[in-house]
Amino acid sequence: MAKKATKKATKKASAGKAASKADDFRAKSADELAGQLVGLKKEQFNLRFQRANGQVENTGRIRVLRRDIARIQTVLTEQRRAAQAKG
């Protein structure tokens, strides 16, 4: 039974990490997020070529990039909708 409690605590801890990352993105302006998004997409593009050539060293980075890009796009969409609701 102790194992189940540990798994639940681990899941909550990992969920907390994602929330804090999204909160960090929410604290930034739309221009900062757009610049960071361009940088991440360039890195993703380069990693795609490395993977195709069999030269990628950190395969986990591809997954992290994809998720960070999705987080930034989500925050940008939230900001746009909030601006539309006000305006």
Give a topology summary.
Elements: H1 2-26, H2 30-53, H3 60-86
**Which of globular, elongated, flat, extended, rod-shaped describes the shape?**
elongated
Biggest sheet overview = none
CATH architecture name: Orthogonal Bundle
Number of helices: 3
CATH fold call: Helix Hairpins
Say how many strands there are.
Answer: 0
- Give the N-to-C terminal Cα separation: 53 Å
Indicate the structural class.
mainly alpha
Our estimate of the beta-strand percent is under 5%
- The overall pLDDT average reads 86
The CATH class assignment is: Mainly Alpha
Describe the structure.
The protein has helices at 2-26, 30-53, 60-86. It is an all-alpha fold and 87 residues long. It has a single domain, classed as Helix Hairpins (Orthogonal Bundle). Helix 1 (2-26) packs across helix 3 (60-86) and helix 2 runs antiparallel to helix 3. The chain is elongated, with a radius of gyration of 17 Å. The relative contact order is 0.12.
What distinguishing features does this structure have?
Helix Hairpins; mainly alpha; 87 residues; 3 helices; single chain
Give a summary of the structure in a few sentences.
The protein is mostly helical. It has helices at 2-26, 30-53, 60-86. It has one domain (19-86): Orthogonal Bundle (Helix Hairpins), CATH 1.10.287.310.
